[in-house]
From TrEMBL:
Record's protein name: Cellulose synthase-like protein E1
Taxonomy, superkingdom: Eukaryota
Chief location category: membrane
Cellular localization per UniProt: Endomembrane system
Species annotation: Hibiscus sabdariffa (roselle)
InterPro entries named in the record: Cellulose_synth, Nucleotide-diphossugar_trans
């Protein structure tokens, strides 16, 4: 008999376009060298002091940008795509698949509506996977009976929804998303309408309760769990509430057609004002412990409450990686991209992370594995709980016999409560070597890093049909605040003992350390960007030239670097499925984020180092006024609220407007010698004009818009005064 050849469960391919990428990168590097030569050779030694310092500052900014470009280029030098083979998985393992625990986190019923959480929970209950092998855990950091009630409704509706999904091969399996887009099925028309009606009624009940902010008495009587809220004084001060809503082991827990149901658990961990709760990381660690008693599945999927499952096969995709006999055992987590269902065509807030996820993460994957980004991620429980990878580690999935606990559900609830109590972690390794790492607003990144530094790899999967869809922020301020949290957290990681360069030394490849640093240093971009936005503009007003003359050959490297870099970025954006306008918006957000969010993040980190500032996690709202939503759909940037972030944006926009006007005045006054001004200050004028073009929506919001999304008047006055003061100071 011929030797049976080993067929892998997944395949790895090189991403196309590598040669082009490397050629462009090499040519940009050459351009950068020329720019540096120019900066050194023509350093104004004779001129005024101001001129020299402006020049040196610009040079430093350019060095920083080049360094940052180098980091991002290095981490994309190689990149790979993983292609899972589902049929091989089912051939080889058939029904002998492992149990899966699924964690859903929610924190606040007012900005994460229970009706949304229900959809996410239902979508993960309905995976195309044996239901008796699934356990779903909801962590409610809002400690809200509204969310608890919504879960009861979900448990009930799942009895209809799961068989319906199976029969009709429904996709996606979030009822809200499905009924919003799907048309009535001709074959099962009656049933289809019935299920839809049942869903809508459930949604109405949940929303009605949320609106009243109270659970009606007759409902409260139906479940013992509600009694727990008699003891709850506030969301920051309450005992552990743990309710097993569906016990998968119970033979009576079946759907309408008599098939078993997945286990469903509601958990609000204990919170006391005197104990830090560590935000999402704390919630996840409580879930890890509680689930280890109840189901203890070897694989854990975690999603944010807005990230519903959009692909019912994701679990199997991930298992193709974990269960591959040759390469699977070293993988700690399989990360799916974060995709969003509420993006408009041209993504005004640039929230799609297209290029980052489609190209950069594949580069990380080739160098040891993508970072963990907090949601849409399948973990190996052991790796997450602190185990170090060891070359002899091998899982025999077929022998991995799941021994389930025998205790009755209500006893189990009692014995598990202590695992979610405030004091449980005292003097343990939780939050350090075990579970998610505490102390950072980007618990995901630092946790992924520490897992990788324990010797594990990670992989990235981006199937054609997106695995998860979430809600992207729909106002500018929320986007900026979210990015402030991220970049602040990233920089904090870089400045901590977890700094990838040192912490990962000899543990993960250099390229991966550099790639982590590239993300960690996002906030540090703010200084160089602010300088580039402000100083050339001031110098323009004063008539100081900081760039080569248009007529000189030295202009070429500057022009080439700027053009090639941006043109390539546009090409990538389009290749990843974006639009031209989308790219322009992305560039604007690039500027906005660097000057506002990143600056705040940068300075707050400094304050933190000095001991003045504290860790915070501002939860992103997932709902908005109808008015705001309408403007979002029309792709109008939402300013609306007064915020220091907007003060900065508006002032910078005004500065560049004044700078451009000043330049135009100079050109006109110059009369027939006009070519001289253009020759000397050409590049600077161009820079100013490009910035003005990028800021067009800001001027519109400052002076022309009448709707509620316009810039608040206070910001308008402030920005005009500040910009005028700045310009006057610069000129004299
Ligand atoms: O005290 C908290 C705060 C937040 N959350 C949950 O954490 C998730 C993420 O919060 P969100 O406000 O939506 O933040 P995003 O910026 O959208 O989250 C991204 O960035 C976070 C790190 O900053 C990661 O944890 C997330 O997975 C990732 O999606 C949500 O499900 C929240 O309910 C908690 O459970 N407890
Ligand atoms: Mn979110």
């Amino acid at each position: 008999m011929a030797k049976i050849e080993y067929v892998p469960l997944f395949e790895t391919r090189q991403v196309k376009g590598r040669i082009l990428f490397r050629c462009v990168a090499a040519s940009i590097l050459l351009g950068i060298c020329f720019v540096f030569v120019y900066r050194v050779r023509f350093l104004p030694v004779g001129g005024g002091k101001a001129e020299r310092w402006a020049w040196i500052g610009l040079f430093l900014s350019e060095i920083w940008f080049s360094f940052f470009w180098f980091l991002t280029t290095v981490c994309r030098w190689n990149s790979v795509i993983r292609i899972p083979h589902l049929h091989t998985l089912s051939q080889r393992f058939g029904k002998e698949l492992p149990d899966i625990d699924i964690f859903v986190c929610t924190a606040d019923p007012s900005i994460e509506p229970p009706s949304m959480v229900v959809n996410t929970v239902l979508s993960v209950m309905a995976y195309d996977y044996p239901p008796q092998k699934l356990s779903i855990y909801l962590s409610d950091d809002g400690g809200s009976d509204l969310t608890f009630y919504a879960m009861l409704e979900a448990a009930d509706f799942s009895k209809t929804w799961l068989p319906f999904c199976n029969k009709l091969k429904v996709e996606p399996r979030s009822p809200e998303a499905y009924f919003r887009t799907a048309f009535e099925e001709a074959v099962h028309a009656e049933e289809w309408l019935l299920v839809k009606k049942q869903y809508e009624e459930m949604k109405m009940r949940i929303e009605a309760a949320a609106k009243m902010n109270r659970i009606p008495e007759h409902i409260r009587k139906q479940h013992k769990g509600f009694r727990e809220w008699d003891l709850v004084s506030s969301k920051r001060d309450h005992q552990t509430i743990l309710q097993i809503l569906i016990d998968g082991r119970d033979s009576n827990a079946v759907d309408m057609e008599g098939n078993p149901l997945p286990t469903l658990v509601y958990l609000a961990r204990e919170k006391r004002p005197q104990y830090p709760h560590h935000f999402k990381a704390g919630a996840m660690n409580a879930l890890i412990r509680v689930s280890s008693r109840i189901s203890n599945s070897p694989i854990i999927l975690n999603v944010d409450c807005d990230m519903y499952s959009n692909n019912s096969e994701s679990i199997k995709y991930a298992l193709c990686i974990f269960m591959d006999e040759e390469k699977g055992d070293e993988v700690a987590y399989v990360q799916f991209p974060q995709n969003f269902e509420n993006l408009t065509k041209n993504e005004i807030y640039g929230s799609s992370f297209r290029v980052i996820q489609k190209l950069e993460f594949r580069g990380l994957d080739a160098n040891g594995g993508p970072c963990y980004i907090g949601t849409g991620c399948f973990h190996r429980r052991e790796a997450l709980c602190g185990k170090k990878y060891d070359i002899n580690y091998k899982v025999d999935w077929k022998k991995l016999n799941q021994t389930r606990v025998e205790e009755h559900a209500s006893l189990l609830e009692e014995t598990c409560k202590v695992l979610a109590s405030c004091s449980f972690e005292h003097n343990t390794a939780w939050g350090k070597e075990m579970g998610l790492v505490y102390g950072f607003p980007v618990e995901d990144i630092v946790t992924g890093l520490s897992v990788q530094c324990r010797g594990w790899k990670s992989m990235f999967l981006g199937p054609e049909r997106e695995g998860f869809l979430g809600v992207a922020p729909i106002t500018l301020l929320q986007t900026l605040v979210q990015h402030k949290r991220w970049t602040e957290g990233h920089l904090q990681v870089f400045l901590s003992e977890y700094c990838p360069l040192t912490y990962g030394y000899k543990k993960i490849p250099l390229k991966l350390r550099l790639a982590y640093s590239a993300y960690n240093l996002w906030a540090a971009n703010s200084l160089a960007t602010l300088y580039y936005v402000v100083v050339p503009c001031f110098c323009l007003l004063k008539g100081i030239s900081l760039f080569p003359k248009i007529s000189s050959l030295w202009v070429l490297p500057f022009a080439y670097v700027a053009f090639a870099h941006r043109a390539y970025s546009l090409g990538e954006f389009l290749c990843c499925g974006g639009t031209f306008l989308g790219w322009c918006n992305d560039q604007r957000m690039w500027l906005f984020k660097r000057t506002s969010s990143y600056s705040f993040a940068f300075f707050e980190n400094i304050l933190k180092l000095l001991g003045y500032s504290q860790l915070a996690f501002v939860v992103t709202a997932k709902v908005a006024d109808e008015d705001v939503s309408k403007r979002y759909d029309r792709e109008q940037i939402e300013f609306g609220a007064a915020s220091p972030m907007f003060d900065i944006l508006a002032t910078l926009a005004m500065l560049n407007l004044l700078g451009s006007l000043g330049a135009i005045k100079k050109i006109i006054l110059d009369g027939n010698r006009e070519s001289k001004v253009i020759d000397q200050l050409g590049l600077q004028i161009l820079l100013c004009l490009v910035l003005v073009a990028i800021n067009l929506p800001v001027y519109q919001a400052l002076f022309f818009r009448k709707d509620k999304g316009k810039m608040p008047t206070s910001v308008t006055y402030k920005s005009i005064i500040l910009a005028l003061l700045g310009c006057t100071a610069a000129m004299y």
